[in-house]
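Input record (one chain):
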Amino acid sequence: MIPMNQYFLVVAILLLLSVLASKVSSRMGIPSLVVFIVIGMLAGTEGVGGIQFDSPVIVQSLGVIALIFILFSAGFDTHSAFARPVLWQGLGLATFGVIITAFLVAIFAYYIIPMPFIHSLLLGAIVSSTDASAVFSVLRSKQVAMNPHLKTLIEFESGSNDPMSIFLTLACIELILTQNLSGFDLLLMFFLQLVVGLLVGFSMGKFIPYIFNKLKLEYSGLYPVLNVALLLLTYGISSSLDGSGFLAIYLTGLMMAKANFNHKTNLYRFHDGFAWLMQIIMFLILGLQIFPSQLPSVFLVGILVAAFLMIIARPVAVYSVLSLSVLSFREKTMVAWTGLRGAVPIILATFPLIAQIPQANIIFNIVFFIVLTSVLIQGTLLTRVARLLKVNQ
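The corresponding structure, as predicted from the sequence alone:
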């Protein structure tokens, strides 16, 4: 048995290293998310830290908890005046854009990876959505000065496209395991995910501000605790009813952003810091789950799929969905380039591992390569691309 104080010591050191490294990474132009993952890898089983860790269940559980607060903070920080004009464009990217990306990646992967097409489709589904934590972190850490309409569209898409990606991932896993899932079952699953998530998110987005205005607590420090409990309740209710808990959480944040209620400013400050803590913990855990010795075998395939996703699949999806949009070609190209992959794909890649899908370990390692490549290349060059396309203010 390892003494508990040693666990505290390790956690404290990893958090301190992450915070300090984020300062250095910002000066070097490297997204801090990459640094968090690398620190986790160095601390892991095959790194200098030697921490024995291999638990997809823990990664998935902590990842879900972290995403709850990251997505809420993202929605809570979005001004409704900016979000309304991009609603339909964002929803189009969050649904049809995700589907197009998943199928294009699946077709490409099928011809370069020796696996059945349904497994290739599973890979495509896992990496089909942009990642809210990666997008928000890179945009804000680099302080990319895009016009509010374009920036809100990018952030709104990244916060709302996870449900479709999760739905496609779960549908593929069900098809692999049961092989008797009908089209009606898939439509019902998607309908429940969407409708229940919207209803719960809208209801809680109205209910929580009402509670804050009516409930007079003796200590102001209890209000953030109350909100944490209510957010977990929001996710739990939606998920228990077969709805999208992530969609419900993000919509709750959007609804609360435009509401007036007591302690709103203090709540915003709390969740801004808490979201950063969740990002650090999430990426550290993801880094611990990676085994570097397994990566060389999928290096070439991972790079090829990542390049196809960034250069072909993502732009095709964006240009198709936004073909009737008033956005200029340069602005559409910026939306395509900002399709960063991050924690969500890696967390989704744990689902096949837990379900014991054949070749799940290969899929997990390929997904990691795609995420690392996306954040390193797209995230690092984001400011330069914005300047080149002349979409920065």
